[in-house]
Structure formats: structure tokens, C-alpha cells
Please model this.
Amino acid sequence: MNVLIVYAHPEPKSFNGALKDLAVAALTAEGHQVQVSDLYAMNFKAAADRDDFMMPENPDFFKYQLEQGHASRTNSFSQDIKEEQEKLLWADFVIFQFPLWWYSVPAILKGWFDRVFASGFVYGQGIGRYDQGGLKGRKAMVSTTTGSPRQAYTPYGMDGDIHEKILYHIHHGMLYFAGFEPVEPFIAWTPARDEEARNRYLDEYKKRLQNLSAIPSIPYHPTAHYDEHHQLKIEYR
Amino acid sequence: MNVLIVYAHPEPKSFNGALKDLAVAALTAEGHQVQVSDLYAMNFKAAADRDDFMMPENPDFFKYQLEQGHASRTNSFSQDIKEEQEKLLWADFVIFQFPLWWYSVPAILKGWFDRVFASGFVYGQGIGRYDQGGLKGRKAMVSTTTGSPRQAYTPYGMDGDIHEKILYHIHHGMLYFAGFEPVEPFIAWTPARDEEARNRYLDEYKKRLQNLSAIPSIPYHPTAHYDEHHQLKIEYR
Model:
């Protein structure tokens, strides 16, 4: 498979860096093709703004989504956005490697979603959403590290259920929205505190990567049942 | 009251810009003191990195959270972070004005949270979390605009419940975590599509701002009931 790793951590020696390095080595050893977008090393621009468009349609009233549609039609995204979109089209499987900061992705990775997941590329302009999104046919996996222990992220934990409450906006709102089939996330709980645990996580992650296509998908609502008001249509029999 | 508006939209003529301008005028007319952090106009740096610290403790192994703690102890955050922290300490009420992008805040605002909500300032270094967070005693309100209609954000809608599934990571994970008492969000649904609706939203928002202290708070779990494993302790009677 073609695997893209989108990696967001400012320190190469971090545990996130180790997970990224391990993934490159393990996937290459399995015969996969691997590309890495190392957002900090690339100094990837996070803020969505006018510089994202080489031929803006309306410089006097800047509407980001409309400019994305125009840039999609005229192939006029800035070079850094084009390159990331090309990597996505190349990929069969995308891994997002990042530390969970403030219940979400670091800003540099949020900027990658804001800018690369463009209208006219992953949705809009005749492209659907969710299972009809522009990146359909591809899988995506979140691989993240937390600052609180596992118990904090349960339904009765202090932070709230990691799947239903915290990662939802990433799995459903970013990945599935764009057409990806999200698979079960790899979560390393508070790896900063325990070297033995870090080694166990590396072993576990390696095993998972050695059988990439076996990772279970996360089930989502099929969008086929939504009506024109974007609301679930329940048919009583 | 002292009101800080943290505003993230690249176009001053946008509806988000209109809501921000209205808030400044309406709150000033009510006798409140108002400051605005216009993140795009400030060219606010989104990516958390080494430049955030004037006297890094360990330049060879960059750990963001540890450097935040060190900078808190030594008052050595970069100037832009210091200024935002001072505004937060000054404020009684903070409004976050932004468009909902990919189920979350735009990257430039996520970067504001990553960088300004520092360890040693809003949590950590002897400061608690949630109702014991560093910003306790202050209220915060999300004011946002959506791209999908209201029906899409219901429990059976295509996007999912806006409160429990989407805004949770902001209300609980960012605002309440830091000690804020979050109040009910102001949500303008798909304002881009309908001028009459925009005018109704402006009227409604103005009325809300004229009675700031009457906006109901969002109830959250009290952290007092959490045990040492960060899990809710239920006492059966």
C-alpha cells in the first residue's frame, strides 16, 4: 500500500517522533511505500488566508470556501497545499501522528486540515460528504499520545469518553467527512511518565503496523439515510 | 465587566467580523470595558514551538509543557504570549468569535489555546484543572457560525449533536479545563446563505450582549468527585 504519515511534533526526539520513525521502518519492511509530511520540519503554514490562492477570484471580499472552490477549478492553490493534496491522492492509508493537545490536534495540524481539505477537493463542487467524500476508498488512522491516564478518558472520567466525546470531531468531522474510512486509533496513554510503557507501546504499534489491513474500522452512520435537511430519516416499518 | 473578544476570521467584512464589531459597540454602550484580540490582524503565530520561550530550560530536548512551566516560573514567555495572558487575567468574561471549521476552531485560534493556555498559567505547577483551573471566576462564551443547517447538528443529524459531540472538546476540554465557567454558545446557522437571517442573528446577539450576566451557564461535572485516577467516584447510598 501507499502510506502517508502526517506528523506534527516540534521535537524529533519525542515519543511521537519515535512512533513516526518506527512506522516508517516497519511499513517499509513490509513492502509498503511510505511518505512523511513532517509539518514542523516543513514549517507548514497553519493559518488559512489569502496566500493560499495564486489567482484569487475576489480579493475584495475574501471568502475562504469560495476561493477553495475556485482554486480547485483553476488548479491555483499555493504550492504547499497542492503537494499535500497530491500525497493524499497517492495514498491508500494515512496515519496522523500527533500529541493530543487541548482535546484536539496541534494547531499546525489543524491548519493542515483547514487548508488541504479544500472545498472542491474533499467535498463540494459536486463531491459529496462522509461516505461520498472526495477521499473515499482510503483508510485513516489516528496515532496519538495523551497527558492524562486512560481512566480520565472513560465515560465517567474527568476528561470524558475519548471516542465519543473527544476524538469524535476528528474521526467523524475531519476524516470520515472527507471520505476516509477511519480505523481504530492507536493511543499511548501518558507515555512521558514511564519508559517501560513506552517500550510496550512501541512493540504493540509495530505489531499493528505489520498487519495494516487487519485494523478494524470504526463504524459510522451511513449517510445514505439522511434527508435533504441533513437529518437522519428513520423509516418505521 | 472587563470583556475580552478573541476573534479569528481572515475577512473583516465577514459575518464573524460583523458579530465582533456589534459586540464591541453593544458592550461599550452598556458600560463594559472591551479589548479585542484580532488574531488574523495580529498575524498571531499558530504553531507552538521553541520561539515561544525567551530562556529555554532544555534546548537539546524540547518538551513544550515543561518549557511552559519553566517560562511561567521565570516570566520568560515570548511577548505575544505574555500579552494574551495579561488580557485573560484582566478579563471577567471572554468571547470567542470564530467560524466552525472542521468541527473545531480555525488553526490560528487553536494555536492561541496551545500557546497561551500554558502549564503554570491555567493548570499545573500547583494550579488545578476544571473548576480549580487558573482562570476560575471568569466566564467564557463561544460565538460561532456554521456551514451546515441546524438539523445536521442534532443527535440524529448528519454531523452529530453540536453540544455533546462537537463543541464538547472546546467547552469542556479548553474552556472549563482552564477554569472558565462556559455559558451557552451563540450559534448562527449557515448565515452565509440568507441576509434576512443575518439581520435576525445580529438583533438576537445584541439583546444577549445587553444582559451579559444573565446568559445561562452550561452545567458540567464537578471535579470534586474525581478520585486519584481521574475517574468519577460514585458513592452509593
